[in-house]
Design goal:
The complex is a heterodimer of chains A (123) and B (224).
Chain A lengths: L4 E5 L3 H13 L3 E5 L2 H10 L4 E5 L7 H11 L5 E5 L4 H9 L4 E4 L4 H15 L1
Helix pairs in contact in A: 2-3
Chain B lengths: L11 H41 L6 H30 L6 E4 H18 L3 E5 L6 E4 L1 H16 L7 E9 L2 E9 L8 H13 L3 E6 L4 E8 L4
Parallel strand pairs in B: 2-4
Antiparallel strand pairs in B: 1-3, 4-5, 5-7, 6-7
Helix pairs in contact in B: 1-2, 1-3, 2-3, 3-4, 4-5
The chains are: A alpha/beta (123), B alpha+beta (224).
Chain lengths: 123, 224
Amino acid sequence: MPELRVLLVDDEEELVGTLAERLALRGYDVTYLLDGAEAVRRAAQEPFDVLVLDVMMPGMNGLEVLKEVKRARPEIPVILLTGRGSEQDSQTGLELGAFDYIMKPVKIDRLIEIMLKAVGANG
Amino acid sequence: MADQTDREPRDADQALRFFGRMSASVSHELNNIMTIILEKSGLMTDLAWAMENGRELNPERVREIGESFSRQARRGIELLKHFNHFAHSVDDPAVTFELKALVENIARLAERFAALKKLDMKTELDEAGLNIHGDPFAIRHIIFSCLEAAMAPLAPGGVITISARGAGGDALVHISAAPPPEPALPREIVDSAIKQARTQGAFLDVTHGADAVVMTLTIPRGAC
């Protein structure tokens, strides 16, 4: 099991907390946050291997967080969580440098597969 | 008293766009609710696997997860009830309806828009039994346009308050934005709301106070 430090960001606390717990049960080192601005600050300061980021968040949305993170830490791969009907956001995210996106509801095995690919691609 | 004789048919394109926006917002929130429920059920499976592999499980944890299922299901049911009322509001453009219930309905559906801007939305609706004869969909549309105009220029932490009361043969709906937003309310949305109000024989005016900007919608109560 690769040791991955994952930062999850979503304003729905019950969702992101549960996802964090499920990833932790699988051996990953997970931090979760509810706010985009806080995520930008922590991502700049702490050694996360991958970010998983909801697009639709109050205040600073996921695409804005992505832009700021890429400015501060361009090497961190970012995976976007999007809702159905947000295909344009997904496309914009890829153009802004997201590694990939995954639609809610999330299949955890698929999320892990993408995270490992993202970190592997990072070297 | 506002004049109820000059009601016009709905602007179909605008009405459809409004219906579409509300539907998209509700479906987005419902998707989040379903996603949480699915994740929680996945967590139960994961915890069962962990127990089979020697990990102990605190019954309190199981209780918490059960309560979460219940909480999200209730959230979904409440939202669907409101969406159902909203969807049925297009059935008949000339019915008698209760204003407090209508305002509660559109305020609940507008909550997500306010939350996305980190705004606090409050309702002050003490007066029940305030009946209006008119177009419940069109009135919802006007009120939502006012809410949208109030939300647009407010910074995070701002407060939107919606209240309603009777005034003789009219009903008054007040939507306030505090603190008074800079820049001012978006002209295009306010003008559109004023125009929509006129189609229902209603009036919309905007007053600028030291503490808040207030939009007042005066609706004729009609044959009530």
